[in-house]
Amino acid sequence: MSKSSGSGTGKKGGSRPDAVIVGAGIIGCGIALALGRKGYEPLVVERSEDSGLGSTRLSTAVIRQRFGHATTVALALEGMRTWQRWGDFLNVDDSEGMASFKETGVAWLLPTDQADTSGISRMMAHVGAVTERVKPGQLADRFPTLQFPEEPGSIEAIVEPEAGYVDDPWLATHNLRVAAEAAGARFIFGTRVTEITNRFAAATGTARQVTGVVTDKGGAISSPVVVNAAGPASAGVNLLARCPLSLTTAPLRQQVLEGPAPAVSHARSATPVFADLTAGYYCRPDPARLRIGSIDPRDEVDFQSNPDKPDEVVSSSFRKAKLAAHSRRMPSGKMRSIQPLVGLYDVTVADWTPILDRTDLEGYFVAIGTSGAWFKGGPTIGFLMAELIDAIRSGGQDHDSSPVLIRLPITRNLIDMSFFSRLRRPHRTGGLL
Ligand SMILES: Cc1cc2nc3c(=O)[nH]c(=O)nc-3n(C[C@H](O)[C@H](O)[C@H](O)COP(=O)(O)OP(=O)(O)OC[C@H]3O[C@@H](n4cnc5c(N)ncnc54)[C@H](O)[C@@H]3O)c2cc1C
Question: Does residue 393's CB lie within 6 angstroms of at least one atom of ligand 1?
Fold first, then answer.
């Protein structure tokens, strides 16, 4: 990993940035690129020595569209279309190489009696996402590397044929960062934001507006816009701004198991990413790093008090349960050696849906609560945030009473940003499924 690709050497040579972005994960780098392309000169402040080392580094990076609401399907679809044309989208050379999208397809293995299966597929089709239904009797032919020992007729599959995974989420984030730098963004690494400053707004004398950040290097950086893209540290960063949200976010521990699985490579074309709702686990069939994890992250709910120091121990009950489910479903996918890993989701506790919004502190924005599902949407969330910030800052739009609407550039779906508001009633259809 490179430590820096030109940190602090932007075209303005250290002058006041138009926006400070806290965090250089997939979300912060996506926002930096989109703001840069809109003519802003953002500065990203990252406490680690490199981009993409937070939640993003451990992402399984599955790119799929099946969600319970048309808006999240639209966001995921635009994300997938972006990953499909990654090189053209970024239009830069990265000396580290380019991340690549592996179009394996994604199969959802579901109980046949699930009431909403047809409804979700119809809704997805309406948004433009392609799915195929594989009936119980066709499963064995369609997925020769998987076993279906259950009672005949009890399982079916919904396949997203164009979906898949990104092979290296760290590299993808690095690619975004290089493109952001080319668009005029600057990055400072190894620097923690310790305070978000504000003052009474001149116009009202009562409302507060953000004035910049203070870092652990002792410097104050003034800026009219600060964006919280701090991932699992997002709730703490809101407190640095003295701006907690009623829709709160919290770091949730996630366990995964990873390792090479040689047998997968022989049948790679036939093995999609699969999310097995009947057994409660998912599998990314990357032959070099097959990964299994929990499809229901509420399996072992384990919120962490300190996002800097999560409990790193993978429980033996998790390991046993997931390996048993995997060896039953995919006997040929046995990992040669197993690396247990722990990552953190930044969860919007009430509904598992991101909060992409302004706040009551003028100029302070949040792109948080990605809830374990939005690596796939990182570049698109960057675009949405840049449009939102610009509509509010330049256009003066009161987003709380008159929501900003944004047309997605590739799929042309229209996003009503009130869906991601901090003031929303929690969605019933949020979450991973
Ligand atoms: C195990 C696991 C599996 C996942 N699988 C998938 C998947 O299959 N598909 C999918 O789409 N998504 C998946 N996700 C979710 C996805 O990875 C996240 O939604 C996404 O990476 C969040 O990115 P982020 O930029 O918000 O957070 P992060 O990557 O955590 O970035 C935030 C950054 O902010 C920095 N920071 C925090 N506080 C400060 C501060 N005070 N000062 C300066 N810097 C600060 C941190 O160091 C960090 O680098 C998964 C996540 C995990 C953990």
Answer: no
Largest alpha-carbon pair distance within the chain? 70
Q: What is the CATH number of domain 103-165+252-344?
A: 3.30.9.10
Handedness of CA 163, 169, 171, 172 (dihedral sign): positive
- Report the predicted TM-score, pTM, of the whole model to 2 decimal places: 0.95
Q: How far apart are CA 187 and CA 221, in angstroms?
A: 13
Is there an atom of ligand 1 within 6 Å of 235 CB?
A: no
Task: Report the C-alpha gap between 78 and 80 in whole angstroms.
Answer: 5
From atom 51 of ligand 1, which residue's Cα is the shortest distance away? 59
Domain coordinates in residue numbering, the chain? 103-165+252-344
Residue 379's pLDDT band, with cuts at 50, 70 and 90, is very high
Cβ–ligand 1 distance for 53 under 6 Å, the answer yes
**Rg of the chain over all Cα atoms, to the nearest angstrom:** 21
Cβ-based neighbours of 149, under 8 Å, separated by 6 or more: 328
Categorize the per-residue pLDDT at 222 as very low, low, confident or very high, splitting at 50, 70 and 90: very high
User: Residue 310: its pLDDT value, please?
Assistant: 86
